[in-house]
Amino acid sequence: MTNLEQTVDMRLRVPGRWRGFGFIGPAAMVSVGYMDPGNWATDLEGGARFGYQLLWVLVASNLIAMVLQSLAARLGIVGRIDLAQACRAHYARPVALALWLLCEVAIIACDLAELLGSAIALNLLFGIPLAWGALITGFDVMLILVLQHYGIRKLEALVAALVLTIGACMALEMLLARPIWGEVAAGLVPRLDATSLFVAIGILGATVMPHNLYLHSSLVQTRRIDSSERARREAIRYNFLDTALALNVALCINAAILILSASTFFGRGIEVTELRQAHELLTPLLGTTLASTAFAIALLAAGQSSTITGTLAGQVVMEGFVRLRISPLKRRLLTRALAIVPAVAVLFYAGEGGVLQLLVLSQVVLSLQLPFAIVPLIRFTSAPRIMAGFASPAWLRRLAWGAALLIIGLNGWLVMQALAPANAGVGRFVIGLMAVLCGALLAWIAFAPLRFTPAGVCTRANEADDNAPDDNKGALLPNPAIR
Fold first, then answer.
1. How many CB atoms lie within 10 A of CB 432?
2. Other residues' Cβ atoms within 10 Å of the Cβ of residue 480
3. H helical segments located in 127-228
4. pLDDT digits over 102-142, tens only?
5. Which fold has domain 18-452?
6. pTM of the model
7. What is the C-alpha separation between 268 and 262, in angstroms, rounded?
8. Could you give phi then psi for residue 123, rounded to 5 degrees?
Protein backbone atom coordinates (compact mmCIF):
# COMPACT_ATOMS: atom_id res chain seq x y z
CA MET A 1 0.00 0.00 0.00
CA THR A 2 3.03 2.29 0.01
CA ASN A 3 1.96 3.91 -3.27
CA LEU A 4 -1.37 4.93 -1.70
CA GLU A 5 -0.08 6.29 1.61
CA GLN A 6 -1.26 9.83 2.44
CA THR A 7 -2.90 10.27 -0.97
CA VAL A 8 -6.04 11.86 0.54
CA ASP A 9 -4.96 15.15 2.10
CA MET A 10 -7.09 15.90 5.18
CA ARG A 11 -5.05 18.97 6.11
CA LEU A 12 -7.10 21.08 3.71
CA ARG A 13 -9.59 23.32 5.45
CA VAL A 14 -13.07 21.83 5.09
CA PRO A 15 -16.22 22.97 6.98
CA GLY A 16 -16.63 20.96 10.17
CA ARG A 17 -19.91 19.29 9.27
CA TRP A 18 -18.44 17.97 6.00
CA ARG A 19 -14.98 17.15 7.26
CA GLY A 20 -15.90 13.70 8.57
CA PHE A 21 -16.80 12.49 5.07
CA GLY A 22 -13.14 12.65 4.09
CA PHE A 23 -12.34 9.93 6.63
CA ILE A 24 -15.10 7.58 5.43
CA GLY A 25 -13.81 4.74 3.31
CA PRO A 26 -11.16 2.58 5.02
CA ALA A 27 -13.68 0.79 7.25
CA ALA A 28 -16.01 0.27 4.28
CA MET A 29 -13.14 -1.46 2.45
CA VAL A 30 -12.54 -3.64 5.50
CA SER A 31 -16.21 -4.38 6.12
CA VAL A 32 -16.63 -6.36 2.90
CA GLY A 33 -14.52 -9.07 4.51
CA TYR A 34 -17.33 -9.36 7.07
CA MET A 35 -19.88 -10.29 4.41
CA ASP A 36 -17.85 -12.49 2.07
CA PRO A 37 -18.99 -15.94 0.83
CA GLY A 38 -17.43 -17.53 3.92
CA ASN A 39 -19.90 -15.57 6.02
CA TRP A 40 -22.69 -16.71 3.71
CA ALA A 41 -21.73 -20.34 4.26
CA THR A 42 -21.62 -20.11 8.06
CA ASP A 43 -24.77 -17.98 8.25
CA LEU A 44 -26.71 -20.30 5.92
CA GLU A 45 -25.64 -23.43 7.78
CA GLY A 46 -26.24 -21.82 11.17
CA GLY A 47 -29.75 -20.71 10.21
CA ALA A 48 -30.71 -23.97 8.49
CA ARG A 49 -29.46 -26.21 11.34
CA PHE A 50 -30.18 -24.11 14.44
CA GLY A 51 -32.78 -21.56 13.38
CA TYR A 52 -32.25 -18.18 15.03
CA GLN A 53 -30.25 -19.69 17.90
CA LEU A 54 -26.86 -18.33 16.72
CA LEU A 55 -28.03 -14.81 15.90
CA TRP A 56 -26.48 -13.60 19.15
CA VAL A 57 -23.09 -14.89 17.95
CA LEU A 58 -23.28 -12.49 15.02
CA VAL A 59 -24.03 -9.56 17.31
CA ALA A 60 -21.27 -10.48 19.78
CA SER A 61 -18.79 -10.99 16.93
CA ASN A 62 -19.66 -7.59 15.51
CA LEU A 63 -19.04 -5.88 18.87
CA ILE A 64 -15.67 -7.62 19.16
CA ALA A 65 -14.85 -6.60 15.60
CA MET A 66 -15.62 -2.94 16.34
CA VAL A 67 -13.21 -2.94 19.28
CA LEU A 68 -10.40 -4.66 17.38
CA GLN A 69 -10.78 -2.70 14.14
CA SER A 70 -10.75 0.53 16.14
CA LEU A 71 -7.46 -0.54 17.72
CA ALA A 72 -6.03 -1.33 14.28
CA ALA A 73 -7.04 2.11 13.02
CA ARG A 74 -5.51 3.74 16.11
CA LEU A 75 -2.20 1.96 15.49
CA GLY A 76 -2.08 3.19 11.89
CA ILE A 77 -3.12 6.76 12.70
CA VAL A 78 -0.81 7.36 15.66
CA GLY A 79 2.21 5.28 14.73
CA ARG A 80 1.94 5.55 10.91
CA ILE A 81 2.73 1.84 10.86
CA ASP A 82 0.58 -1.16 9.99
CA LEU A 83 0.23 -4.26 12.14
CA ALA A 84 2.53 -6.37 9.96
CA GLN A 85 5.31 -3.77 10.13
CA ALA A 86 4.85 -3.52 13.89
CA CYS A 87 5.17 -7.30 14.32
CA ARG A 88 8.35 -7.31 12.27
CA ALA A 89 9.76 -4.40 14.26
CA HIS A 90 8.87 -5.46 17.80
CA TYR A 91 9.30 -9.26 17.70
CA ALA A 92 12.37 -11.34 16.95
CA ARG A 93 12.72 -12.40 13.33
CA PRO A 94 11.76 -16.10 13.86
CA VAL A 95 8.60 -15.05 15.72
CA ALA A 96 7.70 -12.50 13.04
CA LEU A 97 8.20 -15.10 10.30
CA ALA A 98 5.98 -17.57 12.15
CA LEU A 99 3.27 -14.91 12.46
CA TRP A 100 3.64 -14.14 8.76
CA LEU A 101 3.20 -17.79 7.77
CA LEU A 102 0.10 -18.10 9.96
CA CYS A 103 -1.33 -14.94 8.44
CA GLU A 104 -0.71 -16.24 4.92
CA VAL A 105 -2.61 -19.41 5.84
CA ALA A 106 -5.51 -17.24 7.00
CA ILE A 107 -5.44 -15.19 3.79
CA ILE A 108 -5.44 -18.35 1.68
CA ALA A 109 -8.40 -19.70 3.68
CA CYS A 110 -10.27 -16.42 3.25
CA ASP A 111 -9.44 -16.14 -0.44
CA LEU A 112 -10.53 -19.73 -0.91
CA ALA A 113 -13.98 -18.78 0.39
CA GLU A 114 -14.13 -15.67 -1.76
CA LEU A 115 -13.07 -17.48 -4.93
CA LEU A 116 -15.48 -20.34 -4.36
CA GLY A 117 -18.32 -17.92 -3.63
CA SER A 118 -17.70 -15.92 -6.79
CA ALA A 119 -17.34 -19.10 -8.85
CA ILE A 120 -20.63 -20.46 -7.49
CA ALA A 121 -22.38 -17.15 -8.25
CA LEU A 122 -21.07 -17.16 -11.84
CA ASN A 123 -22.24 -20.74 -12.18
CA LEU A 124 -25.71 -19.91 -10.86
CA LEU A 125 -26.11 -16.86 -13.09
CA PHE A 126 -24.38 -17.97 -16.30
CA GLY A 127 -23.76 -21.73 -16.00
CA ILE A 128 -19.96 -21.35 -15.95
CA PRO A 129 -18.20 -24.41 -14.40
CA LEU A 130 -16.84 -23.73 -10.92
CA ALA A 131 -13.17 -24.29 -11.76
CA TRP A 132 -13.33 -21.86 -14.69
CA GLY A 133 -15.26 -19.39 -12.57
CA ALA A 134 -12.51 -19.44 -9.96
CA LEU A 135 -9.93 -18.69 -12.66
CA ILE A 136 -12.04 -15.82 -14.03
CA THR A 137 -12.24 -14.17 -10.63
CA GLY A 138 -8.44 -14.03 -10.58
CA PHE A 139 -8.53 -11.28 -13.19
CA ASP A 140 -9.81 -8.80 -10.60
CA VAL A 141 -6.10 -8.21 -9.97
CA MET A 142 -6.05 -6.15 -13.17
CA LEU A 143 -9.08 -4.17 -11.99
CA ILE A 144 -7.28 -3.33 -8.75
CA LEU A 145 -4.22 -2.12 -10.66
CA VAL A 146 -6.33 0.13 -12.89
CA LEU A 147 -8.37 1.64 -10.08
CA GLN A 148 -5.40 2.06 -7.76
CA HIS A 149 -3.74 4.11 -10.49
CA TYR A 150 -6.58 6.62 -10.09
CA GLY A 151 -6.39 6.68 -6.29
CA ILE A 152 -7.80 4.96 -3.23
CA ARG A 153 -11.11 6.83 -3.46
CA LYS A 154 -11.98 5.02 -6.72
CA LEU A 155 -11.42 1.65 -5.04
CA GLU A 156 -13.51 2.75 -2.07
CA ALA A 157 -16.32 3.88 -4.39
CA LEU A 158 -16.36 0.52 -6.21
CA VAL A 159 -16.47 -1.43 -2.96
CA ALA A 160 -19.22 0.82 -1.58
CA ALA A 161 -21.30 0.21 -4.73
CA LEU A 162 -20.90 -3.56 -4.35
CA VAL A 163 -21.89 -3.36 -0.66
CA LEU A 164 -25.02 -1.38 -1.57
CA THR A 165 -25.85 -4.07 -4.15
CA ILE A 166 -25.57 -6.79 -1.51
CA GLY A 167 -27.69 -4.78 0.92
CA ALA A 168 -30.43 -4.13 -1.63
CA CYS A 169 -30.61 -7.81 -2.61
CA MET A 170 -30.81 -8.97 1.01
CA ALA A 171 -33.48 -6.38 1.82
CA LEU A 172 -35.53 -7.85 -1.03
CA GLU A 173 -34.98 -11.36 0.37
CA MET A 174 -36.30 -10.21 3.77
CA LEU A 175 -39.44 -8.84 2.18
CA LEU A 176 -40.02 -12.15 0.41
CA ALA A 177 -39.17 -14.41 3.38
CA ARG A 178 -41.37 -12.57 5.93
CA PRO A 179 -39.70 -13.88 9.10
CA ILE A 180 -41.46 -13.94 12.48
CA TRP A 181 -39.68 -11.11 14.27
CA GLY A 182 -40.59 -12.36 17.73
CA GLU A 183 -38.61 -15.54 17.09
CA VAL A 184 -35.80 -13.47 15.62
CA ALA A 185 -35.57 -11.46 18.85
CA ALA A 186 -35.35 -14.72 20.85
CA GLY A 187 -32.19 -15.57 18.90
CA LEU A 188 -30.41 -12.69 20.63
CA VAL A 189 -30.39 -14.65 23.90
CA PRO A 190 -26.96 -16.38 24.25
CA ARG A 191 -27.11 -20.17 23.87
CA LEU A 192 -24.32 -22.53 22.86
CA ASP A 193 -23.70 -26.28 23.08
CA ALA A 194 -21.31 -28.84 21.65
CA THR A 195 -23.42 -29.41 18.54
CA SER A 196 -23.46 -25.74 17.53
CA LEU A 197 -19.89 -24.91 18.62
CA PHE A 198 -18.24 -25.66 15.26
CA VAL A 199 -20.64 -23.40 13.33
CA ALA A 200 -20.48 -20.71 16.04
CA ILE A 201 -16.69 -20.59 15.79
CA GLY A 202 -17.03 -20.50 12.02
CA ILE A 203 -19.31 -17.46 12.35
CA LEU A 204 -16.78 -15.83 14.68
CA GLY A 205 -13.90 -16.53 12.29
CA ALA A 206 -15.92 -15.28 9.33
CA THR A 207 -16.84 -12.07 11.15
CA VAL A 208 -13.61 -11.08 12.91
CA MET A 209 -11.04 -11.74 10.19
CA PRO A 210 -7.35 -11.52 11.15
CA HIS A 211 -6.12 -10.06 7.87
CA ASN A 212 -8.64 -7.22 8.17
CA LEU A 213 -6.71 -5.97 11.20
CA TYR A 214 -3.54 -5.75 9.09
CA LEU A 215 -5.42 -4.09 6.23
CA HIS A 216 -7.25 -1.50 8.33
CA SER A 217 -4.06 -0.34 10.04
CA SER A 218 -2.65 0.32 6.56
CA LEU A 219 -5.70 1.87 4.87
CA VAL A 220 -6.10 4.61 7.49
CA GLN A 221 -2.67 5.86 6.44
CA THR A 222 -4.12 6.89 3.06
CA ARG A 223 -5.43 9.97 4.91
CA ARG A 224 -2.78 12.63 5.31
CA ILE A 225 -3.04 14.53 8.59
CA ASP A 226 -0.64 16.83 10.38
CA SER A 227 1.35 15.69 13.42
CA SER A 228 -0.57 17.66 16.04
CA GLU A 229 -2.36 15.90 18.87
CA ARG A 230 -5.62 17.54 17.88
CA ALA A 231 -5.42 16.23 14.30
CA ARG A 232 -4.71 12.69 15.43
CA ARG A 233 -7.52 12.70 17.98
CA GLU A 234 -9.87 13.96 15.28
CA ALA A 235 -8.74 11.17 12.93
CA ILE A 236 -9.26 8.54 15.65
CA ARG A 237 -12.76 9.85 16.36
CA TYR A 238 -13.86 9.97 12.73
CA ASN A 239 -12.36 6.56 11.97
CA PHE A 240 -14.29 5.07 14.89
CA LEU A 241 -17.52 6.47 13.42
CA ASP A 242 -16.51 5.08 10.02
CA THR A 243 -15.87 1.68 11.63
CA ALA A 244 -19.15 1.65 13.56
CA LEU A 245 -21.17 2.57 10.45
CA ALA A 246 -19.48 0.07 8.12
CA LEU A 247 -19.50 -2.88 10.52
CA ASN A 248 -23.13 -2.38 11.49
CA VAL A 249 -24.08 -2.45 7.81
CA ALA A 250 -22.16 -5.73 7.57
CA LEU A 251 -23.99 -7.01 10.68
CA CYS A 252 -27.37 -6.27 9.09
CA ILE A 253 -26.41 -8.15 5.94
CA ASN A 254 -25.08 -11.17 7.86
CA ALA A 255 -28.15 -11.20 10.09
CA ALA A 256 -30.37 -11.07 6.99
CA ILE A 257 -28.63 -14.14 5.53
CA LEU A 258 -29.04 -16.12 8.77
CA ILE A 259 -32.66 -15.00 9.20
CA LEU A 260 -33.43 -15.89 5.57
CA SER A 261 -31.99 -19.36 6.10
CA ALA A 262 -33.74 -19.90 9.43
CA SER A 263 -37.17 -18.71 8.23
CA THR A 264 -36.99 -20.54 4.89
CA PHE A 265 -35.15 -23.79 5.65
CA PHE A 266 -35.11 -24.47 9.41
CA GLY A 267 -38.88 -24.25 9.81
CA ARG A 268 -39.31 -26.82 7.03
CA GLY A 269 -36.63 -29.16 8.35
CA ILE A 270 -34.37 -28.66 5.30
CA GLU A 271 -30.65 -28.97 5.95
CA VAL A 272 -28.67 -26.84 3.52
CA THR A 273 -25.34 -28.41 2.48
CA GLU A 274 -24.49 -26.28 -0.57
CA LEU A 275 -24.91 -22.65 -1.66
CA ARG A 276 -26.36 -24.00 -4.91
CA GLN A 277 -28.98 -25.89 -2.92
CA ALA A 278 -29.99 -22.71 -1.09
CA HIS A 279 -30.29 -20.89 -4.42
CA GLU A 280 -32.41 -23.60 -6.01
CA LEU A 281 -34.76 -23.93 -3.02
CA LEU A 282 -35.52 -20.24 -2.65
CA THR A 283 -37.71 -20.08 -5.77
CA PRO A 284 -40.17 -22.89 -4.88
CA LEU A 285 -40.20 -22.00 -1.18
CA LEU A 286 -40.69 -18.24 -1.60
CA GLY A 287 -42.77 -18.49 -4.77
CA THR A 288 -40.72 -16.32 -7.13
CA THR A 289 -37.57 -16.60 -9.23
CA LEU A 290 -36.65 -13.10 -8.04
CA ALA A 291 -35.48 -14.59 -4.74
CA SER A 292 -32.95 -16.91 -6.41
CA THR A 293 -31.69 -14.22 -8.79
CA ALA A 294 -31.18 -11.70 -5.99
CA PHE A 295 -29.36 -14.38 -3.97
CA ALA A 296 -26.92 -15.08 -6.83
CA ILE A 297 -26.30 -11.39 -7.60
CA ALA A 298 -25.60 -10.60 -3.96
CA LEU A 299 -23.26 -13.60 -3.69
CA LEU A 300 -21.31 -12.45 -6.75
CA ALA A 301 -21.04 -8.90 -5.39
CA ALA A 302 -19.87 -10.27 -2.03
CA GLY A 303 -17.24 -12.47 -3.64
CA GLN A 304 -15.86 -9.77 -5.93
CA SER A 305 -15.75 -7.03 -3.32
CA SER A 306 -13.99 -9.25 -0.80
CA THR A 307 -11.44 -10.50 -3.33
CA ILE A 308 -10.41 -6.89 -3.96
CA THR A 309 -9.75 -6.19 -0.30
CA GLY A 310 -8.29 -9.65 0.24
CA THR A 311 -5.70 -8.97 -2.45
CA LEU A 312 -4.82 -5.64 -0.84
CA ALA A 313 -4.50 -7.36 2.54
CA GLY A 314 -2.12 -9.92 1.05
CA GLN A 315 0.01 -7.08 -0.28
CA VAL A 316 0.09 -5.31 3.10
CA VAL A 317 1.04 -8.50 4.94
CA MET A 318 3.77 -9.47 2.50
CA GLU A 319 5.31 -6.00 2.44
CA GLY A 320 5.06 -5.54 6.18
CA PHE A 321 6.45 -8.88 7.35
CA VAL A 322 9.12 -9.65 4.74
CA ARG A 323 9.51 -6.35 2.84
CA LEU A 324 9.30 -8.16 -0.48
CA ARG A 325 10.24 -5.47 -3.00
CA ILE A 326 8.69 -6.42 -6.34
CA SER A 327 6.50 -4.57 -8.84
CA PRO A 328 2.81 -4.04 -7.91
CA LEU A 329 1.69 -6.39 -10.72
CA LYS A 330 4.01 -9.24 -9.68
CA ARG A 331 3.17 -8.74 -6.01
CA ARG A 332 -0.56 -8.96 -6.59
CA LEU A 333 -0.24 -11.90 -8.96
CA LEU A 334 1.76 -13.71 -6.29
CA THR A 335 -0.76 -13.03 -3.52
CA ARG A 336 -3.66 -14.07 -5.77
CA ALA A 337 -1.87 -17.25 -6.88
CA LEU A 338 -1.51 -18.29 -3.23
CA ALA A 339 -5.32 -18.52 -3.12
CA ILE A 340 -6.30 -19.37 -6.70
CA VAL A 341 -4.05 -22.41 -7.03
CA PRO A 342 -5.44 -24.23 -3.94
CA ALA A 343 -9.02 -23.25 -4.83
CA VAL A 344 -8.83 -24.51 -8.40
CA ALA A 345 -6.98 -27.66 -7.27
CA VAL A 346 -9.75 -28.44 -4.76
CA LEU A 347 -12.45 -27.89 -7.38
CA PHE A 348 -10.76 -30.08 -9.97
CA TYR A 349 -10.01 -32.80 -7.44
CA ALA A 350 -13.14 -32.84 -5.27
CA GLY A 351 -15.66 -31.43 -7.72
CA GLU A 352 -18.64 -29.34 -6.63
CA GLY A 353 -19.74 -31.56 -3.75
CA GLY A 354 -19.10 -30.40 -0.20
CA VAL A 355 -18.25 -26.80 -1.15
CA LEU A 356 -20.35 -25.40 1.73
CA GLN A 357 -18.48 -27.55 4.27
CA LEU A 358 -15.19 -26.40 2.77
CA LEU A 359 -16.30 -22.81 3.13
CA VAL A 360 -17.27 -23.30 6.78
CA LEU A 361 -13.94 -25.05 7.46
CA SER A 362 -12.06 -22.10 5.93
CA GLN A 363 -13.77 -19.77 8.40
CA VAL A 364 -12.86 -22.02 11.34
CA VAL A 365 -9.23 -21.78 10.19
CA LEU A 366 -9.58 -17.99 10.32
CA SER A 367 -10.86 -18.16 13.88
CA LEU A 368 -7.98 -20.39 14.95
CA GLN A 369 -5.49 -17.89 13.49
CA LEU A 370 -7.24 -14.83 14.93
CA PRO A 371 -5.45 -14.74 18.35
CA PHE A 372 -2.09 -14.42 16.60
CA ALA A 373 -3.23 -11.07 15.18
CA ILE A 374 -5.26 -9.87 18.17
CA VAL A 375 -2.63 -10.37 20.90
CA PRO A 376 0.13 -8.34 19.16
CA LEU A 377 -2.39 -5.62 18.26
CA ILE A 378 -3.51 -5.23 21.87
CA ARG A 379 0.08 -5.18 23.11
CA PHE A 380 1.22 -2.56 20.58
CA THR A 381 -1.72 -0.22 21.15
CA SER A 382 -1.33 -0.55 24.94
CA ALA A 383 2.38 0.35 24.96
CA PRO A 384 3.11 4.02 25.80
CA ARG A 385 6.55 3.66 24.19
CA ILE A 386 4.79 3.04 20.87
CA MET A 387 1.59 5.06 21.21
CA ALA A 388 2.76 7.79 23.64
CA GLY A 389 -0.30 9.66 24.90
CA PHE A 390 -2.60 7.62 22.64
CA ALA A 391 -2.03 4.27 24.36
CA SER A 392 -5.27 2.41 25.05
CA PRO A 393 -6.89 3.39 28.37
CA ALA A 394 -7.42 0.72 31.02
CA TRP A 395 -11.10 0.13 30.17
CA LEU A 396 -10.29 -0.44 26.50
CA ARG A 397 -7.44 -2.81 27.35
CA ARG A 398 -9.72 -4.86 29.59
CA LEU A 399 -12.38 -5.00 26.89
CA ALA A 400 -9.87 -6.05 24.22
CA TRP A 401 -8.21 -8.69 26.40
CA GLY A 402 -11.65 -10.03 27.35
CA ALA A 403 -12.49 -10.46 23.67
CA ALA A 404 -9.12 -12.15 23.07
CA LEU A 405 -9.62 -14.58 25.95
CA LEU A 406 -13.14 -15.42 24.72
CA ILE A 407 -11.83 -16.25 21.24
CA ILE A 408 -8.89 -18.25 22.63
CA GLY A 409 -11.25 -20.14 24.97
CA LEU A 410 -13.66 -21.07 22.15
CA ASN A 411 -10.78 -22.19 19.97
CA GLY A 412 -9.41 -24.25 22.86
CA TRP A 413 -12.81 -25.88 23.28
CA LEU A 414 -12.84 -26.80 19.60
CA VAL A 415 -9.30 -28.24 19.80
CA MET A 416 -10.23 -30.31 22.86
CA GLN A 417 -13.17 -31.76 20.94
CA ALA A 418 -10.79 -32.70 18.12
CA LEU A 419 -8.51 -34.40 20.66
CA ALA A 420 -11.32 -36.48 22.18
CA PRO A 421 -10.57 -40.23 22.51
CA ALA A 422 -13.18 -40.96 19.81
CA ASN A 423 -10.89 -39.25 17.29
CA ALA A 424 -7.85 -41.42 17.96
CA GLY A 425 -5.32 -41.84 15.16
CA VAL A 426 -2.63 -39.98 13.25
CA GLY A 427 -4.91 -36.99 12.80
CA ARG A 428 -5.32 -36.64 16.54
CA PHE A 429 -1.54 -36.71 17.02
CA VAL A 430 -0.99 -34.03 14.35
CA ILE A 431 -3.69 -31.81 15.82
CA GLY A 432 -2.20 -32.22 19.29
CA LEU A 433 1.30 -31.36 18.07
CA MET A 434 0.08 -28.29 16.19
CA ALA A 435 -1.92 -27.19 19.24
CA VAL A 436 1.19 -27.40 21.46
CA LEU A 437 3.34 -25.45 18.98
CA CYS A 438 0.70 -22.79 18.41
CA GLY A 439 0.04 -22.52 22.13
CA ALA A 440 3.74 -21.95 22.78
CA LEU A 441 3.91 -19.28 20.08
CA LEU A 442 0.80 -17.57 21.44
CA ALA A 443 2.27 -17.52 24.96
CA TRP A 444 5.51 -16.04 23.61
CA ILE A 445 3.87 -13.17 21.70
CA ALA A 446 1.65 -12.46 24.73
CA PHE A 447 4.36 -12.31 27.41
CA ALA A 448 7.78 -11.88 25.77
CA PRO A 449 9.18 -8.34 26.07
CA LEU A 450 8.75 -6.21 22.97
CA ARG A 451 11.85 -4.96 21.19
CA PHE A 452 12.50 -1.21 21.31
CA THR A 453 15.27 1.12 20.23
CA PRO A 454 17.12 2.99 22.96
CA ALA A 455 15.19 6.11 21.97
CA GLY A 456 12.03 4.29 22.87
CA VAL A 457 9.35 5.82 20.67
CA CYS A 458 9.08 4.50 17.12
CA THR A 459 6.84 4.08 14.13
CA ARG A 460 8.07 1.89 11.32
CA ALA A 461 10.70 -0.70 10.58
CA ASN A 462 14.09 0.65 9.66
CA GLU A 463 14.80 0.37 5.97
CA ALA A 464 18.41 -0.60 6.67
CA ASP A 465 20.11 -3.07 4.40
CA ASP A 466 19.27 -6.67 5.23
CA ASN A 467 23.00 -7.39 5.36
CA ALA A 468 23.31 -5.32 8.54
CA PRO A 469 24.31 -7.14 11.74
CA ASP A 470 21.55 -9.13 13.39
CA ASP A 471 21.54 -6.81 16.39
CA ASN A 472 20.50 -3.94 14.14
CA LYS A 473 17.93 -5.79 12.01
CA GLY A 474 14.41 -4.67 12.72
CA ALA A 475 15.62 -1.59 14.57
CA LEU A 476 13.11 1.22 14.69
CA LEU A 477 13.24 4.80 13.61
CA PRO A 478 12.21 7.47 16.11
CA ASN A 479 8.85 9.02 15.35
CA PRO A 480 9.30 12.79 15.16
CA ALA A 481 5.54 13.28 15.43
CA ILE A 482 5.33 11.78 18.91
CA ARG A 483 7.15 13.52 21.72
1. 13
2. 9
3. 130-137, 140-149, 152-177, 181-186, 194-207, 210-219
4. 888 887 777 777 777 788 888 888 888 877 887 777 676 66
5. Hydantoin permease (1.10.4160)
6. 0.82
7. 9
8. -65, -40
